[in-house]
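Tutorial handout. Part one gives the primary structure; part two gives the three-dimensional structure as tokens.
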Amino acid sequence: MRRANGTGSVVKLSGNRRKPFAVRITTGWTEKGYPIYEILDYVETREKGLQILDEYNRNPYDVNLHNATLGELHETWKKSPQYERLSTSLKKSLRTGYNYCTSIADKKYKDLRVDDMQGCINDCPKGAATQRSIKNLFNHLDKYAYSHQIILHMYSALLQTDKAQMSRKKPFTDEEIQLIKNNIDIPWMDTVLLMLYGGWRIGELFEMLTANVDLEAQTITGGIKTEAGKDRIVPIHPLVFPLIEKRVKEGNQYLFVHKGRLNYDKYRIIWKKLMGKLNIKHTPHECRHTFRTRLDNANANQVCIDLLMGHTSKSIGQRVYTHKTMQQLKNTILLLD
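Part two.
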């Protein structure tokens, strides 16, 4: 049965091919009146080709994007509004995940199946965190591809990663915190104290704008990662205030800079040197863990702790910083001696 004009066609190609049928649509005409074809796909049977044409005619899509490889789709997605809305730390995590997917980068995204995606996770020599980055990447790409009618099934929902080992984060001891105080003149030691007495994430330090430091109110506005964590207001502990004031007077756009913008790679080197000089072993995230532990030990108000750390709490509801709230947060910070 002949198809209606303008709805495309399925033609059999010559030779011995695994997918001998070309599914095509007409996108224009030459000066001599010959049709210009755009190939939607190559398939094994005419029936499958007709199904693809029917789907296309019901919901026309960008042909080039529809046939994009994993690598091409990844690059297109990185230019999308969805990608721009992601936090800097999440973008970094997803870039890391993509580095372990390059073996299938040239494969059409619509042809990827669970085994292809799971293979990237299984072949990853890193731990559970990196495997989660890979899974998270495919989750974002699946959503993007599904919204552009490139795929019909989001296989990323079926991916499995190794279970993360039980957390072994250990808080700083009182003796270690005193040691840090005694060595505050060492460059960059102020960042350690700010995290210990403010509960900031390491990635949030890199994003802190000098303009968001209110010296009069003695607060810092910042945060990343979640809606509860973004744009939260944290009082500056009196012990840390002179150090922050000094940073503000440097007049940089960002509060912490080191040969340009501070980032994970630069700070990793700084942190290693700081811990070496103190002869202690900790990770930057253990500062935040210590902040939470010390407030819990001081019987601090749970809602105040959640507000300070940027956690979601059923007791918080809509986050509104009233004068009373700010005073409660300052009183909570002052529980840390």
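Part three, for discussion. The CA atoms of residues 188 and 270 lie 7 Å apart. The mean pLDDT is 87.
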